[in-house]
Design goal:
Helices cover 20% and strands 25% of the residues. With 737 residues, it is an alpha/beta fold. The protein has a 7-stranded parallel β-sheet, sandwiched between helices. A 7-stranded mixed β-barrel has the order 16-17-21-20-19-18-22. Strands 30-37-36-32-34 form a 5-stranded mixed β-sheet, with no helix packed on it.
Length: 737
């Protein structure tokens, strides 16, 4: 709704919204049926303005014509993007002089986590030593089955549930099988919340794997859990209400590890709510999605949201497959259980697929596809795909198999994700898998054994961009480079629910206090937590300043000093995979310069996106000043230069303004990497600051030398001898029409 259009006759907005909804309702069949009060599900009044309501299509069409109604959206379903990372990120407080050592200001930052709720008994939410809850906090601890007021503390300062949209779409929640309260029975929300701000827990591990201290990125920050996801998914009206409520409650950071498909800015509810939250000074971190390695697979691409891809850390869980022909295949596993394979014995191996690379149902070990007579007592080879990885093991186990070798197909390449299997199992890459299948299909008496080697640290190279991490380019706006950066998202140890086994399968009755998970769902809260640390150190920084600090200090080389690799190709990754690079929290604390973007600047960006006046009104009642010549002129910490189809256009100029957040007197000079297809001129070549928060502008002119068939990647760095403020550059030449 356009909240400024409220007629004088109404005393409050909800009253006006209700009368609007009432005015379009179809007449009830019989008297007494028309309970219009029940039609309104939520009212929104902070990040956006309007209501969620039950309407028929005809009623919705009538409502869209009403004055004051800006836009109408159908309910949509979103999906979750499913402990060594603090040390790997340089955040371990080994000595008390460490910059991250607990300061009382850390305790003022509250991070809202939109997810599946929280398991409050986890030691990760212990509040010992924390100061009282900040006075500005307005959040609540909502109660329900399994969740009482005392489950909140000085660490979990708020816990709320949002299910009205979910129930409107799917029917009433069965309270016997699901907690209609902030309690998390899925595990995902507990894991993400603990990754953001979990208190240190010594001796954390998953059945002996990944043993060490588990702690969040910002152990001094507080958590507010907003439960928006239920057994049947996460619904937009609930997510919207959670963002709206969280902003009013007083969160500084929102961590949102979920996403839908990509739709235009004015049709994407998360994008609109995110714009409203950004206007109120809230930093939003979102997962990029697990649609990789396909290009253009990103979600959550709005420039005011920080889009986080996933990468590996330097820890692994090796397992081996020892074949009867003497060959040893290397893989990974987190298996630890009663059922073991005897070390000295070799077991027959069976693969139900054929030689072709396209898998069939029995090679995928789908439910009910394995013949007990063929697999009993044997190790079964299963292709990845369609069904959950651990579930394939359950199928093998049910058919009498003694072990499983999980094989990557082309879509996963060499990327290995370790799982807490239900029977002895090792996962291997595509290349090893081909050798294995060849052996099994050509040897009548193929045999193997499996070995589990525990936890290995110091893995090189790392980090590597995860194959599953969604990739750019950002097709909504090529001039905005996405993802923004990558963070640890493979085999991450964090707190877990007491209500589900580590695999999350209904048949898994194991109980664990911590679990290892992979996904951009895991990388997103790393960035949310580091953003909370930056906000604690620099309370005056805007969301754009925090994002800029994270992006311009990110690194693009691994621990072998080579460019960051891509797990899906084993070749170097590009900015379409890793964005500005891998987060570097220590450096982000003191970035030297930041690129500020205000709400009006983001609105001016939207003015370049061919939106109608009513589509623009969804974001704000502002008007376009047309201050941006093109979308690439948004003061973004990355450059994505798009030469149009017209070959005659050979020169493009982009503008940036840097704000000094380092020493008052600072002199920077610019260094730009060479490009084959274009020459690059920066004016001026030096920036001489004389005071803190001073702003200086520069322009970058790109001139085509030789149009390239593929995008070219590089970077621009401002250096003052202490700071290196790097922005990635991508130059794309659109093919001539």
């Amino acid at each position: 709704m356009d909240k400024s259009a409220i007629p004088k006759s109404f005393t409050n907005h909800l009253e006006w919204y209700s009368s609007k909804v009432k005015s379009v309702l179809s007449k009830p069949e019989k008297e007494g049926d028309d309970d219009d009060e029940d039609r309104i599900v939520y009212s929104y009044q902070t990040a956006i303005h309007g209501v969620a309501a039950w309407l028929s299509e005809e009623e919705a069409e009538r409502l869209e014509e009403e004055t004051g109604v800006v836009a109408i959206y159908p309910e949509t379903k979103y999906q979750l993007h499913t402990t060594r990372s603090p040390m790997f990120l340089g955040l371990e407080p080994d000595d008390n002089n460490n910059v991250w050592s607990q300061k009382l200001s850390d305790h003022d930052v509250i991070v809202g986590v939109l997810d599946t709720g929280v398991w409050p008994e986890s030691e990760s939410f212990n509040d010992t030593g924390m100061t009282p809850v900040p006075a500005h906090w307005k959040g609540k601890c909502e109660t329900g089955r399994g969740f009482e007021k005392h489950h909140c503390n000085k660490k979990i300062v708020g816990a709320r549930v949002f299910y009205h949209g979910y129930e409107a779409a799917t029917g009433k929640i069965n309270e016997q099988t699901e907690y209609k309260s902030p309690r998390d029975q899925d595990g995902h929300g507990t894991h993400t919340a603990a990754t953001v701000a979990g208190s240190p827990v010594r001796g954390a591990n998953l059945q002996g794997y990944a043993y060490g201290t588990a702690r969040g990125m910002a152990p001094g920050a507080r958590i507010a859990a907003y439960k928006v996801c239920w057994s049947g998914g996460c619904f937009s009206s609930d997510i919207l209400s959670a963002v709206d409520t969280a902003v009013a409650d007083g969160v500084s950071v929102l961590s949102i590890s979920l996403g839908g498909g990509v739709s235009s800015y004015s049709r994407d509810i998360l994008s609109i709510a995110g714009f409203g939250a950004m206007k109120m000074g809230v930093f939003i971190s979102s997962s990029a999605g697990n649609g990789g390695p396909d290009p253009i697979s990103l979600t959550n691409v709005s420039p005011w949201v920080t889009t986080v891809g996933a990468s590996t850390i330097d820890r692994d869980f090796p397992g081996t497959v020892n074949l009867g022909n003497g060959i040893t295949l290397r893989g990974v596993s987190l298996y630890k259980g009663q059922r073991t394979l005897s070390i000295n014995k070799r077991y027959p191996v069976v693969y139900m697929g054929g030689n072709s690379s396209s898998p069939d149902p029995s090679s995928l070990c789908l439910d009910g596809t394995l013949d007990q007579r063929l697999v009993a007592g044997k190790i079964v080879v299963c292709d990845r795909g369609i069904s959950p990885r651990v579930q394939k093991g359950q199928v093998v186990k049910d058919a009498g198999g003694v072990g499983m070798i999980l094989v990557n197909t082309a879509s996963n390449g060499e990327e290995l994700v370790a799982d807490c299997h239900l029977l002895p199992a090792v996962a291997v890459g595509e290349t090893e898998g081909k050798a294995l299948k060849h052996y099994v299909l050509t040897s009548p008496n193929a045999t193997a054994n499996l070995a589990f080697l525990g936890t290995r640290l110091g893995i090189r190279p790392s980090p590597v961009v995860a194959a599953f991490s969604s990739r750019g380019p950002n097709f909504l706006t090529l001039e905005i480079l996405k993802p923004d950066l990558v963070a640890p998202g493979v085999n991450i140890l964090a707190a877990w629910t007491g209500d589900a086994g580590p695999s999350g399968l209904p048949t898994d009755h194991r109980k664990v206090r911590f679990n290892l998970l992979s996904g951009t769902s895991m990388s997103c809260p790393h960035v949310s937590g580091v953003a909370a640390l930056l906000k604690a150190r620099h309370p005056e920084w805007s969301p754009a300043a925090i994002k800029s600090a994270l992006m311009t200090t990110a690194y693009i080389h691994d621990n072998t000093h080579h460019p960051l690799g891509d797990a899906s190709t084993a070749a170097p990754s590009t900015s379409y995979d890793h964005g500005a690079g891998h987060i570097n929290p220590m450096k982000a604390l003191d970035p030297g310069l930041v690129y500020e973007i205000e709400a009006q600047d983001y609105f001016e960006f939207l003015c370049t996106q061919s939106l109608t006046p009513s589509q623009l009104k969804v974001f704000s009642n502002r008007s376009c000043q047309h201050t941006l010549a093109n979308p690439g002129d948004l003061n973004y910490p990355a450059f994505s230069v798009v030469f149009p189809e017209k070959v005659s256009i050979t020169t493009l100029t982009l503008h940036r303004t840097a704000t000094n957040v380092g020493p008052p007197v600072s002199n920077y000079h610019v260094v730009v990497s060479p490009f084959k297809g274009a020459s690059i001129q920066v004016e001026p070549k030096t920036l001489k600051f004389t005071r803190k928060y001073q702003k200086l502008s520069y322009k970058v002119t790109f001139t085509t030398v030789a149009r390239q068939a593929w995008p070219e990647f590089g970077g621009l760095v401002w250096k003052d001898g202490v700071h290196s403020v790097r922005s990635p550059i991508v130059i794309t030449w659109l093919p001539p029409a």
